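WP5 quarterly update. Target: SchA/CurD-like domain-containing protein. Source organism: Streptomyces gamaensis. Length: 122 aa.
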Amino acid sequence: MPFAAITYDIRAGCEDEVAEVFTGFRRVGSPSVPDSSGREAARILSTAVFLRDATLIRVIEYEGDLDAVARHMAAQPGVQEVERRLKPYLNSPRDTDTVEGFVRTFRAGLLRCVSQIGVPRD
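Structure tokens (predicted):
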């Protein structure tokens, strides 16, 4: 399954406050990501958040359409809450208040995957 990694440029010295933002994160009820007609376009398999100094990275394991994943995440209350709570700790503002802004910000923050190795799945 592919992974996507998104960076956040946070203020140094705020690591504990930023970590607190992610405590109690509300996961969506289903991993399924629907397209505009309601058919499954993707699945979010897992997520992880890493933090060191002024760098925060969110890693998403998914299958399917990454743009559909970004649009889906933009509409999730838990993701919206995290984005709102992170704003005071960011070095650069993130335009995440609309779906279009969130998707643009998501794409701009993506790291290039240079290697991904996993065990074969049956």
